[in-house]
């Protein structure tokens, strides 16, 4: 079963230096989908240090659960976030976009 449109749970504001958890969930895909997160339209790499764009960010990303955890949040993490659910059936589905300040 292809994934449906995932739901992104993004805090609208986060305090610099604190922990912020973004969640992506999708209920109908089978096999269960994996998740990718995007910031301002750019996919977040599994390891922020591997990318010049995200090397200032400190986060962990679990493609199985859809959790994106910033610890700590930095000012550069402000942006528009959305997630994408995909399995090997059908096409990937994107969530709505949410802004985190």
From TrEMBL:
Quote the SMART domains the UniProt record gives. Answer: IGc2
- Main localization is other
Task: Kindly indicate whether the keyword Signal belongs to this entry.
Answer: yes
Family annotation (Pfam families): Ig_3
The keyword Hydrolase appears for this protein: no
GO CC terms for this protein?
A: bicellular tight junction; plasma membrane
Question: Which residues fall in a compositionally biased region of kind Polar residues?
Answer: 48-60
Residue spans crossing the bilayer: none
Q: Where in the cell is it found?
A: Cell junction, Tight junction; Cell membrane
Residues annotated as region Disordered?
22-60
Coiled-coil blocks:
none
Query: What residues does the Ig-like domain cover?
Result: 2-99
Per the record, membrane topology reads:
Single-pass type I membrane protein
Gene Ontology BP term (one): intestinal absorption
Tell me which UniProt keywords the record has, alphabetically: Cell junction, Cell membrane, Disulfide bond, Glycoprotein, Immunoglobulin domain, Membrane, Phosphoprotein, Repeat, Signal, Tight junction, Transmembrane, Transmembrane helix
What family name appears in the similarity comment? Belongs to the immunoglobulin superfamily.
This protein is called JAM1 protein
Gene that specifies this protein: F11r_0
């Amino acid at each position: 079963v292809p994934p449906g449109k995932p739901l992104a749970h993004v805090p609208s504001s986060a305090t610099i230096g604190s922990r912020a958890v973004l969640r992506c969930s999708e209920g109908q895909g089978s096999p269960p989908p994996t998740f990718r997160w995007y910031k301002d339209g750019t996919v977040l790499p599994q390891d922020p240090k591997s990318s010049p764009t995200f090397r200032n960010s400190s986060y962990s990303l679990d493609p199985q659960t859809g959790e994106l955890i910033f610890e700590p949040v930095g000012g550069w993490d402000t942006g528009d976030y959305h997630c994408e659910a995909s399995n090997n059936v059908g096409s990937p589905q994107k969530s709505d976009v949410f802004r985190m300040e």
